[in-house]
Write a structure and sequence with these properties.
This protein is α+β, with helices and mostly antiparallel strands and 114 residues long. It contains five helices and three strands; from the N terminus they run ααααββαβ.
Length: 114
């Protein structure tokens, strides 16, 4: 088996940052340990990713009792220069507005201003 075919089974289109953001959009009150278990990465990795997303303005964390609630700003542009003309809401919309996914609109994701 060549090394390219061995590597070919390991890559994916979405980064863990995108996966965490999508998970938080689906369930804004989820525990980070549950996100980690669902994605298949460590809880510490999820904590670092959430800190990155928060520092970049993609989400805010609000303490509600003993839990956190995550609110996503869908108007923030994607980071790569080739996609910077698209807000992150486009990415969320592509994955969250399917029939089998819950609608993230009620206050969890802030819509981009028109």
């Amino acid at each position: 088996m060549s090394s390219s075919s061995a590597r070919g089974d390991q890559w994916t289109f979405l980064t863990n940052h995108a996966r965490v953001l999508l998970w938080l959009a689906r369930d804004p009150e989820v525990r980070l340990r549950d996100v980690a278990a669902g994605i298949g990465i460590t809880e510490r990795a999820v904590q670092i990713i959430v800190a990155d997303l928060e520092a970049a303005g993609y989400l805010t964390r609000t303490r509600v009792g003993r839990r956190n609630r995550y609110t996503i700003d869908a108007s923030v542009s994607l980071r790569h220069p080739l996609e910077a003309d698209h807000p992150v809401g486009d990415l969320l919309g592509a994955f969250l507005h399917r029939e089998d996914a819950p609608d993230p609109e009620p206050a969890e994701v802030q819509a981009a201003p028109q």
